[in-house]
Design a protein that fits this description.
- By secondary structure, the protein is of the alpha+beta class.
- The chain is about 60% helix and about 10% strand.
- A four-stranded mixed sheet has the order 3-2-1-7. The chain has a three-stranded antiparallel sheet with strand order 4-6-5.
- Helix 2 crosses helix 3 (about 60-75) and helix 8 (about 195-205) runs antiparallel to helix 9.
- The N and C termini lie far apart (about 60 Å).
């Protein structure tokens, strides 16, 4: 593999020997991220132009695209086949034989997990989830502010939370309650409205004999739900809270 492209937490392009390639312009970086969103296929030039230069006319946008491609090829090497781009008159894509991309690796890992039930997760599955989260550790395409990027950023943020939720489930089944709490807390930092994660922490705290922290978690859940969306916790969570008070 000739190159590695990382797209989470800011774009970085590395050669096979780990030397960093400086991609010189915002639009060249945006082009690489846009192509990374379309693995294993090239994208029509008109589609790229409409996304990256939406306010330009057809001819200026095509000229800007040619310039961005030229800049990428220039920094990667001008000899035939040096750049991991597939270019023809109509389409442009990344060559999977010459470049690996972190978002491709993350999505492959998540696809492997799709058919596995939470109750059947193994240590190998948990390890794969950890590796996936090491890849998807920050916002996709950070530093770019294009409209086309927003839906993909939200999809990948949701996938990051889902991977954390699955680790919560794994550790609860295994009886690793402190680890389950840790991952639930990390997921709640990304989306504090996920009541089921608050519930997992409450149940783990209760199982560990820490009634005071379980009650505090309920109060945190109730506060955020009321403040953000004006609702009370669900009947299930309120029943568990009542049982905590009765235990006291």
């Amino acid at each position: 593999m000739g190159f590695m492209l990382t797209t989470f937490g800011g774009l970085r392009l590395l050669r096979h020997d780990s030397t960093v390639v400086e991609v010189p312009t915002d639009r060249a970086r945006a082009l690489l991220v846009f192509l990374a969103m379309h693995p294993d296929r090239a994208v029509h030039r008109e589609t790229i132009c409409a996304a990256l230069w939406p306010n330009s006319g057809d001819a200026p946008a095509r000229a800007q695209l040619r310039k961005a491609v030229w800049r990428i090829k220039t920094v990667l090497g001008t000899e035939e086949g040096a750049a991991p781009l597939i270019c023809n008159e109509f389409q442009i894509g990344l060559d999977p034989a010459r470049i690996e991309v972190d978002v491709w690796q993350f999505n492959r890992a998540m696809r492997l997990m799709e058919l596995k039930d939470d109750a059947a997760l193994t240590l190998d599955d948990a390890t794969l989830l950890l590796q996936a989260l090491d890849l998807n550790h920050d916002q996709f395409g950070s530093g770019l502010f294009d409209d086309w990027l927003l839906p993909e950023q939200e999809v990948l943020r949701e996938a990051r939370i889902m991977a954390m939720e699955r680790l919560v489930a794994f550790h609860r089944v295994e009886g690793h309650l402190s680890q389950a709490i840790k991952w639930a807390q990390r997921a709640l930092k990304l989306d504090p409205l996920r009541e089921h994660l608050h519930l997992s922490i409450i149940q783990c705290r209760h199982a560990m004999g820490d009634r005071a922290l379980a009650i505090r978690q309920y109060q945190s859940c109730a506060d955020v739900l009321r403040r953000e969306i004006g609702v009370a916790p669900s009947a299930q969570v309120q029943r568990i809270y009542a049982s905590l008070n009765n235990d006291g």
